[in-house]
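Recall from the previous chapter that SMILES is a line notation for molecules. Here it describes zinc ion.
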Amino acid sequence: MAYVAMARKWRPQSFSDMVGQEHIAQTLQNAIEGGRLHHAFLFTGTRGVGKTTSARILARTLNCTGGDPLHPCGQCESCKDISGGNPMDVFEIDAASNTGVDNIRDVIERVQYPPVIGKYKIFIIDEVHMLSTGAFNALLKTLEEPPEHVIFIFATTEVNKVPQTILSRVQRFDFKRLSVEQIRSRLRYICEQEGINATDETLDVFAEKADGSMRDGLTYFDQAYAFTGSDMTADAVRSVLGIPPVELFFTLITAIEGHDLKGCFKMVDDACKRGIEFTPLLDGFGKFLRNLLYTRLDAFTPDVLNVSEDLYSKYKSAVPSLKNGDILRISKMLIDLQATLRYSTNPRLLVETTFARMAWLDHLTDLRRALAAINDPSKAGASDEALKKKVTEVQNMLDAEEEAKALQQREENPFAALQQGISTGYSVPTYSRYELAAAWNSIRARIADSEGFAMSVALNDTVLETGDLQQTPFPVALTYLSETAEDSWGAKQMDEHPEYLERLKQILEEYLQTAVSLSIKTRVFNEAEQQIRKQAQMSPYELDLEKEPGLQKLKQLFAAELIYSHKSARPVVPQQSEGCDSDNDDNA
Ligand SMILES: [Zn+2]
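With both inputs in hand, we obtain:
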């Protein structure tokens, strides 16, 4: 016997089979029974929730002559005609591939002829929002004055794209997404009918992955059934559908809790070997973190969370040293990762690095030290060549990231941070110890905004210089740069106002998320800084001149230095326009 896909075999045949859309079935039934039938319907909702199926049921029901107004008999001429596959009175048009006016003209032409077998001529237009404006306009006339024997059923996933003129002429039904319970109970029914053994846990794997779509749920069910046969275990189903088992996430979170980088990398490797893709892996981890928080907060019962009692208590006792705040921060990092993953040229490395960062959440800047420790020949595990290679890769990636961030900081509009602060209240960005110098502009902008003018001015002509990057508290010197070695004005201000220094220290600690020891230094500009300073003071004209090849040659030959430039007066051609002062004052 040929295998018939479950999705087809168990497609609902009448309104009483429709799962999750009982409100719609009820309204339609009432209308049919009461004889108050609208001539145009619009079914909206996300994909796979039963819009087209309901349209077909409605068409069958309306044209059935079997006597029961609610259940198509399947025996009468109309029912047979429809199930025959090429019905004479029911037309299905997929607007996604028939968008034009001509397709609609074809429909309109058919509208004029009475039905052949049934009572109505029924037009089902799927994805109706895809029709062109011309096609909608052509349709409108028929919708305004339809012949008695015509019924239109439109279906769409994007009702906002359907013109108002159409919307005002149809009876609209909104289809709901299906809950996990609704999909599970439909699958349970199918299992009973088909003699398939499956636990609730197994069926929930389908129901969760289906994400509100019955059709998707049935497709996954088919996919797994072809592989497992009548004995469906949750593990086998997960494996077929590429869904990571929850144990993987317990391993990961335990590695994160223990700052175990090797464990994080191993988990990713493990997932890859099982053929799990990153998108379901990260989705699964997100769900896992949510369940972890919910069980800790006693917010929901095991039943509501869709987990067994055993699993619930496992969640509850997991990773005790991670605080709820840590789990929220990990979730935030995960969400950021999910957003950037699809743009990444090396998704695996990105996932691994992010997991490593999660593992070193409270010591983010020590990540390099941890990596170095793995490479240390005196430590166990250093002989693992694959791991060493991985560590080098991660180190390179950290380097590239830091460079990119620093560059971005330099190019960033210094007012951006200020504007953000005004509109959202300060969300303090955090920086690694390596990024402090680059972050200085944004910190200054914040001080100018929130600490007042006097303190802000006292910080002019400064850079931040850092000491030993591994030392805690982290040594930072607020360094005043001047032409001479004398104390600068700003340094004196800081000396007279110790509260400025204290406040700056607090702000730095906030940005770096670590203890800071802050000192004040004064020094003269070094050569590179002199150069930058000089260039900053030059006019654009002088900057151009500096690049002039003749001058460069002169400099080279005589070690010459440009100390003064004079722009010669050129004759200015007066403008021809009249009634307008020409701006021709000579610059002698
Ligand atoms: Zn019938």
